[in-house]
Design brief:
Length: about 400
């Protein structure tokens, strides 16, 4: 029997990393070899204590995740860091290593993409047949996922309302994808911009990334999931993809485990950075669901189109994007006629929800002062770096991942 948890009683965390050549940093499609080396088979996830490894769509990607929902987020970064080092030790035998950030800076997916051919391969083949997965938005994107639980319909409504309000701000914390195919991308969160267009053939799958307001699980299924399944049917008569995970919004309901999964966060340079962002986001969401920042009615007032507009600005400019819509400002308890930058809003939220001695606060302050990882990368590379310069900076990022250290501008 499925066991449900109340708001913030458990946490599910997933971190995705690239496997690359140790010298060239080119992608290496070897996640199946890595999993088989550790477990002796490709039959399922690799279970190692509190965490598990699993495959994803692309063969050069490995996902690390909490095997069971974690009771607390504190010290979870240490567990992920231990797995990173263990994987790097295994990969070193074949001259490979893990690389962080949300997009490989010079991968050519049309030439280098390799899809997972083993268990559940028919699902990946269906995605490829319908959407053509040899593109950046399918095989060159690494993200951090957060799963937050709910027990009742009322808790679902509160959590969903708070998450959709916070989603547009998250690239101002987590953007880490400033390059595509060796060139400076037009936006700082190129992964999320590319992700928005993955399923353009069936627009209902991604919607506006920001989910619409819903008041219950029943309404969510009717307004979102049933429409996706209906639109998929002509392309997927076997119904291989008609599952909750086919929903590609920035936050999706996972009723099979009574959680909402947040998907808009780019992966960072090391688990300590990811877990600091997760703890900040969870603290803001807790304050919103408790109505300590604003009443629920105010949080549900911003329209999906208004929130989408802010998201697009933050994808491009991260913390410098301006928040001016009065419904959004009011939802965050701010009374301002001129508005403020996303970074300034995050600073106010940090002061409101973070204890002065919270161990993760210093990392968030570094991001707000020095910029997102995308901005710190650009400080080191410049706007038009050579391939050699890009390789040096991304090798430094691979070292950050191995050592568990933040990248300073």
């Amino acid at each position: 029997m499925k066991k449900s948890f109340g708001l913030f009683e458990r946490y599910g965390v997933e971190l995705e990393y690239m496997i690359v050549d140790e010298e060239t940093l080119n992608v290496r499609p070897e996640s199946d070899k890595l999993i088989a080396l550790e477990s002796g088979s490709l039959a399922g996830d690799v279970a190692r204590g509190r965490l598990e490894w699993s495959n994803e769509l692309s063969l050069h990607l490995i996902e690390l995740k909490t095997g069971r929902p974690a009771v607390r987020l504190s010290r979870l970064d240490t567990a992920f860091q231990t797995e990173v080092r263990h994987i790097n030790h295994l990969l070193q035998k074949s001259g490979a290593r893990l690389l962080p950030t949300a997009m490989h800076p010079w991968m050519d997916p049309a030439r280098e993409s390799r899809l997972w051919p083993h268990s559940n391969g028919e699902i990946y083949a269906a995605f490829d047949r319908i959407f053509n997965c040899s593109g950046h938005g399918w095989t060159n994107l690494q993200s951090t996922h957060i799963n937050l639980p709910f027990r009742t319909a009322a808790e679902f409504r509160k959590l969903h309302t708070a998450i959709r309000l916070v989603l547009p701000l998250l690239p101002a914390l987590a953007a880490s994808s400033p390059f595509i195919e060796g060139r400076r991308a037009p936006m700082l969160d190129a992964r999320l911009e590319t992700y928005r267009h993955n399923c353009r053939r069936i627009p209902s799958i991604t919607g506006h990334v920001i989910p619409d307001v819903v008041n219950s699980p029943t309404e969510y299924r009717r307004k979102i999931l049933h429409k996706i399944y209906r639109d998929l049917t002509p392309h997927d008569p076997e119904k291989l993809l008609q599952e909750e995970w086919a929903n590609a919004r920035g936050a999706i309901a996972r009723f099979e485990r009574d959680t909402i999964e947040i998907r808009v966060l780019d992966i960072q340079e090391c688990p300590a950075a990811d877990l600091a962002i997760i703890q900040f986001v969870a603290s803001v969401l807790r304050a919103l669901t408790n109505a300590k920042i604003s009443p629920e009615a105010a949080q549900s007032r911003p329209s999906t189109r208004v929130l989408e507009g802010l998201l697009l600005d933050v994808i491009q400019q991260t913390g410098k994007a301006r928040v001016t819509d009065p419904t959004i400002l009011s939802a965050f308890g701010i009374d301002s006629e001129s508005g403020l930058e996303a970074r300034e809003l995050l600073e106010l939220l940090l002061e409101a929800v973070a204890p002065a001695k919270a161990p993760w606060r210093e990392t968030i302050e570094l991001i707000l002062i020095q910029g997102t990882l995308a901005e710190r990368i650009l400080t080191k590379t410049g706007e038009r770096p050579s391939r050699a310069k890009l390789r040096r900076v991304y090798a430094e990022l691979a070292d950050c991942l191995e050592r568990g250290k933040l990248l300073h501008a």
